[in-house]
Write a structure and sequence with these properties.
By secondary structure, this protein is mostly helical. It has helices at about 1-35, 35-70, 80-115, 120-150. Helix 3 (about 80-115) runs antiparallel to helix 4. The radius of gyration is 17 Å and the shape is elongated.
């Protein structure tokens, strides 16, 4: 069973982090183009992908990680590298739930009220992309933590 949980865990991380990297590359291209409609469209697509792809993948990663440890993978929940991973997952969840999700709703309302060219719409989208990049950097660090298992 351990190998099955490990496979699901790695696959979920690949979908989540790999997808986030691809989305950030698209965001950087859109920002460089200065085409406001393209930026707004990508922000809207990012919200859809976040809810329907990244959130489920993160939950599968969490569940399969817990099952690997519980299934006697030779680790305990007190391992520093596991605690780092769980902490980062909590931070990522909170960033999504408390900032990215609500901010996407505010951006949508602002866009309907003022149009996609409005400076506040563009500023908020750029801030969402910047926060997402910081979150992605955290996730990449967690992958390094999981791969190297410092302190073991």
């Amino acid at each position: 069973m351990y190998e099955g949980w490990l496979f699901l865990h790695v696959l979920a991380i690949v979908v989540w982090v790999g997808g986030a990297i691809a989305l950030q590359l698209q965001a950087m291209r859109a920002e460089r183009s200065n085409h406001t409609a393209r930026i707004v469209s990508l922000a809207h697509e990012s919200e859809w992908i976040g809810l329907r792809v990244f959130m489920p993948a993160s939950l599968v990663a969490l569940a399969s990680g817990i099952l690997m440890v519980a299934h006697d993978g030779g680790w305990t929940f007190g391992e520093p590298w596991i605690l780092v991973g769980l902490g980062a997952l909590a931070v990522s969840f909170l960033v999504g739930a408390l900032f990215l999700g609500p901010e996407a709703g505010r951006i949508g309302a602002l866009t309907e009220e003022h149009g996609h060219d409005h400076p506040d719409v563009q500023r908020r989208i750029r801030r969402v992309f910047a926060v997402s990049r910081a979150e992605l950097a955290l996730l990449v660090l967690v992958i390094a933590d999981m791969a190297t298992k410092p302190g073991t």
